[in-house]
Amino acid sequence: MNMLLLYKMIQARFYQYHCEEDALSEEECATLAKQVWKEYQQTGDNLHELIEDAVYEFLTK
Fold this sequence. Notes:
Elements: H1 3-16, H2 26-43, H3 47-60
Helix pairs in contact: 1-2, 1-3, 2-3
Protein backbone atom coordinates (compact mmCIF):
# COMPACT_ATOMS: atom_id res chain seq x y z
CA MET A 1 0.00 0.00 0.00
CA ASN A 2 1.25 3.42 -0.87
CA MET A 3 1.71 5.32 2.41
CA LEU A 4 1.04 8.64 0.70
CA LEU A 5 -2.42 7.37 -0.25
CA LEU A 6 -2.98 6.23 3.31
CA TYR A 7 -1.94 9.69 4.60
CA LYS A 8 -4.39 11.34 2.19
CA MET A 9 -7.19 9.06 3.34
CA ILE A 10 -6.46 9.92 6.98
CA GLN A 11 -6.35 13.65 6.21
CA ALA A 12 -9.68 13.37 4.37
CA ARG A 13 -11.27 11.94 7.51
CA PHE A 14 -9.92 14.85 9.56
CA TYR A 15 -11.51 17.27 7.09
CA GLN A 16 -14.83 15.47 7.50
CA TYR A 17 -14.61 16.29 11.21
CA HIS A 18 -14.00 19.95 10.26
CA CYS A 19 -10.49 19.98 11.69
CA GLU A 20 -7.91 22.56 10.77
CA GLU A 21 -5.21 21.62 8.28
CA ASP A 22 -2.58 21.73 11.00
CA ALA A 23 -4.62 19.67 13.48
CA LEU A 24 -2.50 16.64 12.63
CA SER A 25 1.29 16.80 12.50
CA GLU A 26 3.22 14.66 10.05
CA GLU A 27 4.51 12.53 12.93
CA GLU A 28 0.98 11.93 14.22
CA CYS A 29 -0.22 11.10 10.72
CA ALA A 30 2.64 8.64 10.25
CA THR A 31 1.82 7.01 13.59
CA LEU A 32 -1.86 6.70 12.69
CA ALA A 33 -1.01 5.32 9.25
CA LYS A 34 1.29 2.67 10.73
CA GLN A 35 -1.34 1.75 13.31
CA VAL A 36 -4.07 1.44 10.67
CA TRP A 37 -1.88 -0.52 8.27
CA LYS A 38 -0.77 -2.94 10.99
CA GLU A 39 -4.36 -3.58 12.04
CA TYR A 40 -5.42 -3.98 8.40
CA GLN A 41 -2.72 -6.60 7.81
CA GLN A 42 -3.71 -8.49 10.97
CA THR A 43 -7.47 -8.43 10.54
CA GLY A 44 -8.18 -7.71 6.88
CA ASP A 45 -11.06 -5.46 7.92
CA ASN A 46 -12.34 -2.67 5.71
CA LEU A 47 -9.56 -0.08 5.42
CA HIS A 48 -11.96 2.87 5.36
CA GLU A 49 -13.59 1.73 8.60
CA LEU A 50 -10.21 1.23 10.26
CA ILE A 51 -9.18 4.76 9.28
CA GLU A 52 -12.47 6.17 10.52
CA ASP A 53 -12.07 4.40 13.86
CA ALA A 54 -8.44 5.51 14.27
CA VAL A 55 -9.23 9.15 13.49
CA TYR A 56 -12.25 9.18 15.80
CA GLU A 57 -10.20 7.63 18.60
CA PHE A 58 -7.42 10.19 18.02
CA LEU A 59 -9.84 13.12 18.15
CA THR A 60 -11.69 11.92 21.25
CA LYS A 61 -8.71 11.11 23.44
